[in-house]
């Protein structure tokens, strides 16, 4: 008996939408770990600075170490998931998260902490590659958007948990890192009872198992059979190599996947998340007030992401992005104006800074955050989907690393005002990119999107030839 059949037996009581939701929630715990472990450093830096000597450069290295690990993790995960399967790879991600959390909590020096967070980064990068792909390949097109976005909801929920955990624990940064073990163990145990991706199974020639999974996650045997037949139209190719991604007809998917990931970072959202408490203390807030204010932003991001997950399949990915980004640009412009000059913000305007900060976080993170991993999981063909998603994740983490390593230095060089205005300019460039190049994928099967690529009708205004 195969492992997939055994696993199906363990969850035989569930089928259809309830099983699909259970799959999405458990798998998305990888997003909670990603959000918690990346968000907690913004709070932990306040306690770390009291125990270790940290200048701006050292703070940036401590923060960026998890991102450097993510660059390695996201590239390595694609081939691993193509070979071992999506489910087993997700279990490995949970194991690495647990190991990295323990090592971070026990770090005796800054250098050991940097290396430990590099290990966490391996898991975080892997999670952004494998979890959205797994959910996208299991869920039906009508619900794919909201369920893949469950991953991002858990990311921002994890960030919010990180801020308030930091507030409760104060300067106890070791406990902040150690708590990441709990969801990591739940992810590993949860994935034990979930089925494998039917698309991955079919790509390995295991048609009977793929059909068994589809019958359990679709509303009727006829729909399961129809989807199996559609998947078979694109699954007869051998597993793609990295070289295959260089084929001209795949270039639009590479541009869109890597481009949307790039803009999610150079518009400043992770830089603001990582350094929000630092920015607010520079504005004149005390440490606790700064953490609470940043936590308020995290709550608003969580609410926005939840709303986005409910409407994304109806509104569409492209329209949702284009409707949210303008508000974040306005918030950045006003916040930059408030920070003009070297003196702390006038006390009467401090809460206007907080308002602009949380609005920016909600609209920017609530737009890119809702759509980035969803789009990356949708635009690549099945035979290179694992490797294509790795390229999208690599772009995300690569630009995240660049922004993280330069944010505090950039603020020191040109000032916070011009730094925020630069993020506003790149946000405007993102809107141009989305308008002309990002296709609408809502309501379309993954196989239909692949066919559009092959027929050179992928971009929004591209005509059928």
From TrEMBL:
Xref: NCBIfam families: SP (TIGR00879)
Family matches, as InterPro entries: MFS_dom, MFS_sugar_transport-like, MFS_trans_sf, Myo-inositol_Transporter, Sugar/inositol_transpt, Sugar_transporter_CS
Gene Ontology cellular-component terms listed: plasma membrane
Annotated protein name in UniProt: MFS sugar transporter
Membrane-related topology note: Multi-pass membrane protein
Transcription in keyword set: no
Regions crossing the membrane: 20-48, 60-80, 92-112, 118-135, 147-169, 175-194, 253-277, 289-312, 319-339, 351-376, 397-414, 420-438
Family: Belongs to the major facilitator superfamily. Sugar transporter (TC 2.A.1.1) family.
Molecular function (Gene Ontology), one example: transmembrane transporter activity
Cellular location(s): Cell membrane
Pfam families membership: Sugar_tr (PF00083)
Gene3D superfamilies: MFS general substrate transporter like domains (1.20.1250.20)
Superkingdom of origin organism: Bacteria
Record keywords: Cell membrane, Membrane, Sugar transport, Transmembrane, Transmembrane helix, Transport
Main localization (coarse): membrane
Domain Major facilitator superfamily (MFS) profile: 23-442
């Amino acid at each position: 008996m195969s492992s997939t059949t055994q696993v199906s037996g363990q969850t035989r009581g569930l089928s259809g939408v309830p099983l699909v939701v259970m799959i999405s929630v458990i798998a998305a715990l990888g997003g909670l770990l990603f959000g918690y472990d990346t968000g907690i450093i913004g709070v932990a830096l306040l306690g770390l600075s009291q125990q270790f000597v940290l200048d701006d450069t050292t703070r940036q290295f401590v923060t960026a170490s998890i991102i450097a690990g993510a660059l390695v993790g996201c590239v390595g995960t694609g081939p691993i998931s193509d070979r071992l399967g999506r489910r087993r790879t997700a279990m490995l991600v949970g194991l690495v998260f647990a190991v990295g959390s323990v090592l971070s909590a026990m770090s005796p020096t800054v250098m050991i902490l940097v290396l430990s967070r590099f290990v966490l980064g391996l898991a975080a990068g892997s999670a952004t590659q494998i979890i959205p792909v797994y959910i996208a390949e299991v869920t039906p097109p009508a619900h794919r958007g909201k369920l893949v976005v469950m991953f991002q909801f858990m990311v921002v929920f994890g960030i919010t948990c990180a801020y308030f955990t930091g507030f409760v624990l104060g300067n106890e940064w070791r406990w902040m890192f150690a708590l990441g073990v709990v969801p990591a163990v739940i992810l590993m145990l949860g994935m034990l009872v979930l089925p494998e991706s039917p698309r991955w199974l079919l790509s390995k020639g295991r048609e009977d198992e793929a059909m068994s999974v589809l019958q359990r996650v679709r509303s009727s045997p006829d729909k399961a059979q129809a989807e199996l037949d559609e998947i078979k139209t694109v699954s007869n190719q051998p597993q793609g190599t990295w070289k295959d991604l260089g084929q001209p007809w795949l270039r639009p998917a590479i541009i869109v996947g890597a481009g949307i990931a790039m803009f999610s970072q150079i518009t400043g959202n992770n830089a603001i998340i990582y350094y929000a408490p630092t920015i607010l203390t520079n504005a004149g807030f005390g440490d606790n007030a700064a953490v609470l204010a940043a936590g308020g932003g995290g709550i608003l991001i969580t609410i926005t992401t939840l709303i986005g997950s409910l409407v994304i399949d109806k509104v569409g990915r492209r329209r949702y992005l284009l409707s949210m980004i303008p508000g974040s640009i306005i918030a950045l412009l006003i916040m930059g104006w408030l920070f003009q000059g070297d003196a702390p913000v006038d006390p009467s305007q401090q809460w206007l800074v907080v308002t602009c900060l949380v609005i920016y976080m909600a609209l920017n993170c609530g737009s890119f955050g809702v759509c980035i991993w969803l789009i990356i999981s949708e635009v690549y063909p099945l035979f290179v989907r694992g490797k294509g998603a790795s390229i999208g994740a690599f772009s995300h983490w690569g630009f995240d690393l660049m922004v993280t390593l330069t944010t505090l230095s950039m603020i020191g060089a040109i000032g916070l005002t011009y730094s925020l205005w630069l993020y506003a300019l790149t946000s405007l460039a993102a809107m141009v990119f989305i308008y002309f190049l990002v296709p609408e994928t809502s309501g379309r099967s993954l196989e239909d999107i692949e066919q559009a690529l092959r027929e050179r009708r992928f971009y929004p205004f591209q005509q059928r030839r």
